[in-house]
Predict the 3D structure of the following.
Amino acid sequence: MKQLQSGRPKMADVARMAGVSVTTVSRFYNEPDAVSEKIRARIAEAARALSYVPNVMAGSLAATRSKMVAVVVPTLNNSVFALMLEEMSSVLNRRGYQVMLASNDYSIEREEELVKSLLSWSPAGIVLVGRHHSRGTLKVLLEDGLPVVEVGEYLDGAIDSNIGFSHRDAGRRVARHFANLGVRRLGLVLVALPGDRRAADRGAGFRDIAREDGLHLEEFTVPERASSKVGATAFGELMSRADAPQAIFFSNDMLCLGALFEAVRLGIRVPDDVRLCGYGDFDFATTTSPSLSSVRPPDREIGRRAGELLLERFRGEGAPVSIDLGFEHIVRASG
């Protein structure tokens, strides 16, 4: 049967591949019980083969884009993404665009499901976090041809446009800072959620410097979402080891906060006995005692630039770009 050559697959392509009429395919999506099981199987298989997603805004609006921008983030339980979304929404709202938000729970398979569902609403553009996506996600986005912005990481070979920074460089920067202070025993507390590649990259950068400088490294892997309770547990475990670290990098500020609480409970002095640094530069980092060192990602700037870039593309201006915004390593009293 004839395959789709280019562009987003249409209902007529599915009908042609399944050997049925367009009306039958339409009925399959709108009144599935009115189509025989055998025909339903043929249509479903054709739709999968073509990565077809139905347009729920069909009819008079079928040939147009909506005034909606779809955004898929790994989690809603993280202020890093909240700041980015707040700024992006503000930029888009001023030009009459609304944000439709979804969370993939750090799963690229779930992201693919969400992207296909969101495309059925004919969004004007879509924003994804990170650089790791399933083949199915890449296929439907490339075929659709709408503006896509991948945020949070700086990368080569983006789907379309990209705005972010190197998480590996962030890990390297913190480790280099500790090494320059004369630290010889490092600690790393790392969230190991399967889809959190950005935290993994920060850990990889931290290990780079430990290896290059011949520093001892003790690690604690967090198999669950970051929390102060887990951070306290990780800190206590690391500090009980024979080669207890003199400085510890945490992949999230909540973990670092828990470590600070546990240090007080154990009578361990920060930064005299051990230095601490987190990631995210959450609001509480400046108000703890001692204040917490952290890596500050450019969340608001990422959101603003993503919104502005999308508006340019909607106007038919500009071209795909990759923007490295960098990050800040904020050194405070904790080290």
About this structure: Confidence is low (pLDDT under 50) at residues 1-6, 59-63.
